[in-house]
Amino acid sequence: MGRKGSPRSPQAEGGSRAASPPSPVWALPEELLLLICSYLDAQALGRLAQVCRRLRFLSSRDVLWRRIARGCLNSGFTQLGTDLAAGIPVKERVKVSQNWRHGRCRRETVLKWKCNLMPWMELDGEYLYLSQAENIQAYHLCAEETGLQCHPQAIFSGHQEDVCRFVLVNSHIVSGGGDGSIVLHKIHGSYSVKFSAHEQEVNCVDFQGGLIVSGSRDRTAKVWSLSAGRVGQCLHTVQTEDRVWSIAISPLLSGQLLTCLGTDFHRGAGVLDVFYETPSLLLSCGYDTYIRYWDIRTSTRKCVQEWEEPHDSALYCIRSDKNHMIASGSSYYGVVRLWDKRQTRCLQSFHLSSPTSSPVYCLRFSTTHLYAALASALHVLDFTAS
Fold it and tell me: What Å distances lie between residue 214 and 186, 237, 245, 272, CA to CA?
């Protein structure tokens, strides 16, 4: 006879402990689980991933992180939601985005040259194209390192004097040089075309849809044809009151001068770089130390937003992630600044030129790295570092 009040264990009765019934949540279809998780923020999704393997897999799905990523800096999504970095998990991009916002990065000088230059560059997938004197060199980006290969994999030449600017479009390089000429190279082939374009150096070029536009110290901007039988033929000449430092073709590609932006600039407040985000939204920067944001649908006389360089330095170059982030390069002390369009002040600053002062002549960035070209060196900021 057993003692009173002593319950008998299931094992004593010959059975085993019954398994706890599955949570009703797991009975829901995956679509509903994703819908529930879509209301969570980044911190809550991170905590959810620590519960079990199934929730870790579920909470890492790109569909849950896209909404969060579109509100982050440089996460690869444009204002319209286009994904510019497909193939990279969105969750990882959101993590790296926090490093951009807080300025956490590893700095390195990856290339140096002996004489001072005014380099320009473009990024294209796994390659970085950099102008050095009269040549353009293609460097392969190292997949597992911050830097790039020491020696260029290809060299594109044709100018008799330094390359001033160049663009990379549809596997073609179009460059303008100090010799007044424009050179067109096909990257994967031996095809190249060179023609005389201006009486003085070609300060800037752009290329799109079979048209080249160029600007020069000779106070003209010109439109050139690349159609069969008319290669190098000038279609339009625009006379300007001053030398042309920057030029960009609208994505609408009308081929005609539509309007002029701004009317109240003082003499000498030239624009040094222009960047189109959409056919109607563009950024400009220059000597008057301002970054300006233009919406040509509303007004071409006044910008919709502007940011002032805090140290009163001219801005040589500008780039945008086509969403919330802007990166700018200053004329003094190699300063690169990151801006959030939703804020009025600079978000982060990086001083790259040491010990000598140099402008940041050009900068480009991916979702993980920023490359800045100064007078005698190429610097890289790696934002994957925690």
Answer: 19, 10, 10, 14
Q: How many CA atoms lie within 13 A of 201 on its CB side?
A: 15
Round to whole Å and give the CA distance between 11 and 147: 64
C-alpha separations of 382 from 99, 129, 153, 188, 370 in Å: 10, 18, 23, 29, 7
Supply 318's token pair. Answer: 């500008």
Pairing of strands 325-330, 315-320: antiparallel
Q: Exposure pattern of 54-65 as b/e (b: 16+ CB <10 Å)?
A: ebeebbbbeebb
Whether the CB-CB separation of 377 and 112 falls below 8 Å is answered with yes
Q: Where are the alpha helices (DSSP H) in the chain?
A: 30-37, 42-48, 53-58, 62-70, 90-102
| DSSP per-residue letters across 25-65 | GGGS-HHHHHHHHTT--HHHHHHHTTT-HHHHHHTT-HHHH
**C-beta separation of 224 from 233 below 8 A:** yes
DSSP string, 193-221: EEEE--SS-EEEEEEETTEEEEEETTSEE
| CA distance linking residue 19 with residue 24, whole number of Å | 15
Q: Are 219 and 202 in contact (CB under 8 A)?
A: no
Q: What is the pLDDT along the chain (386 residues), one digit of tens a residue?
A: 444 554 454 444 444 444 445 566 667 787 888 888 888 888 888 888 888 888 888 888 899 999 999 999 999 999 988 999 888 999 999 999 999 999 999 999 999 998 899 999 999 988 999 999 999 999 998 866 557 888 899 999 999 999 999 999 988 999 999 999 999 999 988 888 999 999 999 999 999 888 999 999 999 999 999 887 888 899 999 888 888 999 988 887 655 556 667 666 676 678 899 999 998 999 999 998 999 999 988 888 889 999 999 998 999 999 999 999 999 999 988 999 999 999 999 999 999 976 668 999 999 999 999 999 999 999 999 999 76
Burial of 164 (0-12, 13-18, 19+ CB in 10 A): buried
Q: Give the SS3 label for residue 13.
A: helix
Going by the DSSP 8-state scheme, the letter that residue 23 receives in this structure is: P
First to last CA, the chain: 67
CB contact at 8 A, 294 and 284: yes
